[in-house]
Amino acid sequence: MIYVVYVLVALIGAGIHLWRHPTEHGERKIEVVLLWWIVVTIGVGGIVGGLFHLLDGASVAKEIGFTRGDGGFQTEVGFGDLALGLAAVLCIWIRDRYWLAILLVAAVFLWGDAYGHIHQELVNDNHDPDNTGPVLYADIVFPLVGLLLYLARERLRGSISTPGT
Fold it and tell me: Are the C-beta atoms of residues 117 and 136 closer than 8 Å to each other?
């Protein structure tokens, strides 16, 4: 459920921004949506997720379906989530290629998480909703949408040409 909240906050925040600045167009509109997407879904999501892993790792492990306990991995994942989240929030102040770096790190990290969730499902028959439910989809979709928005913005900027042009 929290993942839906992140998406709604990002889209509503971007919508309000664009409504209050009706002269924004093209590249700038995508940039506003991209900024909100990175900061909320990857930034705030990473910080909140990291704090859950760090402050209540054993319970999070149990919710994910890891019945063998924390094993220390929760601390490592927590700091990774927290680092990614803080770096993503910095996109408010640091722009341009930094955004691409954040999106690439998010893609590797979160798609790696998705791989781990799918592996747990297939190898350990772990169908816990906190393993193969919304968290799995968020791990795949959040960086993917961010990368697509980034590419759309770069294309409008003229940084990326269409094949055959």
Answer: yes
Q: What is the pTM of this model?
A: 0.88
Residue 162 counted as domain residue? no
Are the CB atoms for 150 and 100 separated by under 8 Å? yes
pLDDT digits (tens, 9 = 90+) for 2-11: 999 999 999 9
Indicate the SS3 state at residue 159.
Answer: coil
Measured CA to CA, the distance from residue 28 to residue 165 in angstroms comes to 23
Domain assignment of residue 112, given as a range: 2-157
43 CB-contact burial (10 Å; exposed 0-12 / middle 13-18 / buried 19+): buried
What is d(CA 22, CA 155) in angstroms, rounded to the nearest whole number? Answer: 22
Rg (CA), the chain: 17
